[in-house]
Recover the amino acids of this structure.
C-alpha cells in the first residue's frame, strides 16, 4: 500500500486526452478540434477547411497529496530526489534540489487523474450548403479514480497501530490506452433569428492495454509487522490485459475493439452581428464501451475469511505473477479467481454544456460545464469541470485565459496563445511558474494548416449580414 501511495505522487511528475484543452476547443478558429467538445461546433467555424498536422497534451491531477514548494520544471529536473515528508528527519535540512511529497489529511474523497493524448492527421471541411464533414485520429491514455476513501490517507492509514482494523469503503480505479479513428458530421438548420447545428462523431476504437480494480464492498483492513496486510472478507473484482510490456523489448498490441459516439447540438443567435451575438451548445461525449477479448483476464476474489496479504512479495513479482498471487492468497489456487477471458471498459463519458457571447468585435467570453457520466462499472472516469474563458480571437492571433474549477474543488488559471497555425496552452499555467505545492499540471500544443484567404466564400467574417426573405 505504501508503494501504491508513493506512485500516486509520482504521477504528477512523470505522466503525460489532456484535461479539456479549452484553448483548442472553444474559439471560432478551432476547426476540427472544436468538434471534440461539441460535434456540431463546426457550423460556426470561420474556416472552410482545417487540417490538424499533429497535436498532443497531458494533464495530471490529484487531491491525495502534493509535492512541496516546486513547479513542473523543477520537479522534472530533480525527480530522483523525491522523498516523503514522513521520512524527513528534523535534524537534516532539506536541500534546494530535494522534492518533498506530503499528503492531504482531510476527510474528502480522493481522486487521481492522469490523462494524455496525441492527435494525428485530422481534417474538417465545411460546405457552402451548411453541411460539415471531418475525420480525426487520436491516441489516448488515462488513469482515473474519483472515490478513494479518506481513510487511505497516508497519515490515517500508516499511523494506525499494528493489528488495529479500520473500515475501508468500496472504490474503483481504471486505466486504459487506446486509439480512435473518428468521423464527424454536422448540419446547419436556418431559423428566423439564427440557426441550429446538429452534429455527431462516430469513433472506431482499438484498445491496447487496460486494467481495472473494483473494491466492491467495504472491508476491514489492518497492518501487521513485516509489511503485511490483513483484509477481512474482501470482495475484489479486477480485469487486466497481459501484453508484452515487461522485459527488454516491450511492445503494445491490439487487445480489443469498440465503438464510441459523441452527439452535439448548438443554437446560434445572430442578432445584428456579422457572425453571431451568442450561441449555446449541449453535447454528450464518449458514449460507448470497449470489449477486451485478447490477452485479457477478468477475476473475482470474493471470500468471507481473513486474508493475509504479503505486500513485499506482491511488489517483487511481475504483473502476470501478481494476478496469480492474488488468487493464491484468496483461494489457495492461482487460477481459482479467473471468471472470464474478456472484459469491458467504458469510455470517459460526459455531459457538456457550452455558452459563448460576443462582447465586441474580436472579444468573446465562453463558459463550459462538464459532468462525467460513467459508461458502466469499469469505465474511465472523466474529471468534472467548470470554466469561464475570456478570449481575443483574430485570424492570425488568439489569446484566452480560462478560469477552471476542477472536480468542484481545485481552482486554476489557464492561458492559451494561437499564432497563425501554432497553438500552445495550459489549463493550469501556474504549475509551471513560481514555487508552490504542486498537485496538478496541464499542457497542450497543436500545429495545423488552414486557409490563408478568409473571404466570404472561405469561411471568414461576413462583410454584411444576409437578409432573409419571408413569404406571406
Amino acid at each position: 500500500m505504501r508503494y501504491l501511495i508513493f506512485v500516486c505522487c509520482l504521477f504528477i511528475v512523470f505522466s503525460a486526452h489532456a484535461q479539456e484543452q479549452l484553448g483548442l476547443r472553444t474559439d471560432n478558429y478551432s476547426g476540427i478540434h472544436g468538434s471534440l467538445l461539441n460535434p456540431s461546433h463546426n457550423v460556426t467555424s470561420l474556416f472552410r477547411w482545417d487540417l490538424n498536422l499533429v497535436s498532443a497534451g497531458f494533464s495530471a491531477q490529484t487531491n491525495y497529496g502534493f509535492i512541496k514548494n516546486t513547479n513542473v520544471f523543477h520537479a522534472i529536473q530533480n525527480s530522483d530526489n523525491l522523498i516523503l515528508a514522513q521520512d524527513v528527519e528534523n535534524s537534516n535540512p532539506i536541500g534546494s534540489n530535494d522534492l518533498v511529497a506530503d499528503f492531504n489529511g482531510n476527510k474528502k474523497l480522493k481522486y487521481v487523474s492522469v490523462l494524455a493524448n496525441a492527435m494525428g492527421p485530422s481534417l474538417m471541411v465545411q460546405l457552402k450548403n451548411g453541411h460539415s464533414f471531418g475525420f480525426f485520429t487520436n491516441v489516448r491514455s488515462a488513469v482515473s479514480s474519483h472515490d478513494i476513501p479518506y481513510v487511505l490517507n497516508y497519515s490515517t492509514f500508516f499511523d494506525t497501530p499494528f493489528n488495529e482494523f479500520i473500515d475501508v469503503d468500496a472504490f474503483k480505479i481504471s486505466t486504459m490506452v487506446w486509439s480512435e479513428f473518428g468521423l464527424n458530421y454536422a448540419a446547419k438548420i436556418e431559423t428566423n433569428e439564427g440557426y441550429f447545428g446538429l452534429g455527431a462523431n462516430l469513433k472506431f476504437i482499438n484498445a491496447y492495454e487496460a486494467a481495472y480494480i473494483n473494491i466492491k464492498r467495504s472491508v476491514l483492513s489492518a497492518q501487521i509487522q513485516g509489511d503485511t496486510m490483513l483484509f477481512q472478507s474482501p470482495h475484489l473484482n479486477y480485469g487486466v490485459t497481459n501484453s508484452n510490456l515487461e522485459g527488454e523489448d516491450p511492445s503494445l498490441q491490439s487487445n480489443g475493439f469498440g465503438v464510441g459516439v459523441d452527439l452535439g447540438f448548438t443554437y446560434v443567435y445572430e442578432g445584428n452581428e456579422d457572425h453571431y451575438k451568442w450561441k449555446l451548445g449541449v453535447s454528450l461525449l464518449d458514449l460507448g464501451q470497449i470489449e477486451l477479448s485478447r490477452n485479457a483476464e477478468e477475476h473475482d476474489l470474493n471470500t468471507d475469511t481473513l486474508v493475509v496479504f504479503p505486500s513485499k512479495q506482491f511488489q517483487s513479482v511481475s504483473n502476470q505473477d501478481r494476478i496469480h498471487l492474488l488468487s493464491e492468497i484468496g483461494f489457495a489456487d492461482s487460477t481459482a479467481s479467473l471468471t472470464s477471458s474478456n472484459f469491458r471498459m467504458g469510455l470517459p463519458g460526459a455531459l457538456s454544456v457550452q455558452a459563448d457571447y460576443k462582447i465586441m468585435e474580436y472579444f468573446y467570453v465562453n463558459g463550459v460545464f462538464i459532468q462525467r457520466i460513467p459508461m458502466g462499472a469499469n469505465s474511465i472516469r472523466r474529471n468534472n469541470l467548470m470554466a469561464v474563458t475570456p478570449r481575443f480571437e483574430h485570424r492570425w492571433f488568439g489569446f484566452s485565459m480560462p478560469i477552471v474549477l476542477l472536480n468542484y474543488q481545485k481552482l486554476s488559471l489557464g492561458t492559451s496563445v494561437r499564432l497563425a497555425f501554432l497553438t500552445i496552452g495550459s489549463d493550469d499555467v501556474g504549475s509551471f511558474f513560481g514555487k508552490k505545492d504542486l498537485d496538478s499540471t496541464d499542457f497542450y500544443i497543436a500545429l495545423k494548416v488552414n486557409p490563408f484567404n478568409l473571404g466570404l466564400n472561405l469561411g471568414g467574417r461576413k462583410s454584411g449580414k444576409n437578409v432573409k426573405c419571408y413569404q406571406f
Notes: The helical segments are 2-14, 22-25, 72-77, 154-158, 311-315, 319-331. Confidence is low (pLDDT under 50) at residues 1-18, 455-472. The chain has one domain: 2-458. The first helix runs from residue 2 to 14.
